[in-house]
Amino acid sequence: MKSILDNRPALAAEVNKVAEVAGYLWQKGWAERNGGNITVNITEHVDEEIKALPAISEVKQIGVTLPNLKGCYFYCKGTNKRMRDLARWPMQNGSIIRILDDCASYVIIADEPVMPTSELPSHLSVHNWFIETGKPYKASVHTHPIELVAMTHCKKFLEKDVATNLLWSMIPETKAFCPRGLGIIPYTLPGSNELAEATIRELGDYDVVMWEKHGVFAVDTDVMAAFDQIDVLNKSALIYIASKNMGFEPDGMSQEQMREMSVAFNLPK
User: Fold this and answer.
1) DSSP 144
2) What DSSP letter does each residue of 175-204 carry, written as one string?
3) In what helix (H) or strand (E) does residue 109 lie, and over which residues does it extend?
4) What tens digit of pLDDT does each residue of 45-104 get?
């Protein structure tokens, strides 16, 4: 079967990165059943031939008007699709969509009429905000990292920047590779407009946002970079939990040591 990815190495590379990340999420136990979502803005890799492709679905309403996404193209994980399957067959478990000129609807153009994630309005709202604010981000990843989710069942970690400072202090690389830390959103109905709005507010200060008792939402220039931020944060959570399981409260790096890190690596203070 002919694929939109054929003879388009740049586009194929982006979709294959999504597939690779999907495999990592499954292997780590962060993507049970059909849990999690990935959406990537692929507009820069779309040629004139793709723009001329007919729709293979009826027009679908987004549910919100997103003026900055007119004519944009996205690769989206499919609704009710499993990350473990997307890792092997990305174009059978995800699809490419075109945002129409009304900025409130879309059509699927390839490869199969796989309906995008039910959380598409939330993901697209974030991408609309990226363009509005001039951010270079192209990818959004939502997943369920076990240890980070576990931490949100403790009230003290829901206070602003408490979890960020703890996780930064566990191992130097965490602050180096996730320099803006972890935003926290109190429990909000999954998939709701309220959760999308709260996420956008937090993304003003953070690149990774923790949804209490649910999972994380991370953004970056590509899907691998977004995954990396979640990965380093969860490694710190694992170190913290391992220390507690050994019967002691870990000392962590001091504030002075973390300030030294910020200067050495030219990180945000």
Assistant:
1) -
2) HHHSTT-EEEE----TT-HHHHHHHHHHTT
3) strand 105-110
4) 999 999 999 999 999 999 999 999 999 999 999 999 999 999 999 999 999 999 999 999
User: How many residues does this entry show for the chain?
Assistant: 269
User: What angle, 0 to 180 degrees and rounded to 10, lies between the N-to-C axes of helices 162-170 and 255-264?
Assistant: 70
Number of Cβ within a 10 Å radius of residue 99: 23
CB 156 within 8 A of CB 162: yes
d(CA 140, CA 129): 12
Q: How far apart are CA 107 and CA 42, in angstroms?
A: 15
Q: Report whether 163 contacts 252 (CB < 8 A).
A: no
* Order of all β-strands in the sheet with 60-61: 60-61, 105-110, 94-99, 73-77, 37-41, 139-143, 215-220, 208-211, 182-185
Residues forming the active site:
119
Query: What 3-state class would DSSP assign to 99?
Result: strand
Domain 145-269: CATH architecture, name and number where available: 3-Layer(aba) Sandwich (3.40)
Topology at the third CATH level for domain 1-118: L-fuculose-1-phosphate Aldolase (3.40.225)
Task: State the pTM of this model.
Answer: 0.95
Task: Name the percent of the chain lying above pLDDT 90.
Answer: 89
Structure-token match 């740049």, residue found:
10
Rounded to an integer, what distance in angstroms lies between the CA atom of residue 146 and that of residue 36? 13
Tokens of 252: 């962590």
- Amino acid letter, 222: D
DSSP code, position 47? -
- What is the C-alpha to C-alpha distance for residues 133 and 204, in angstroms, rounded to an integer? 10
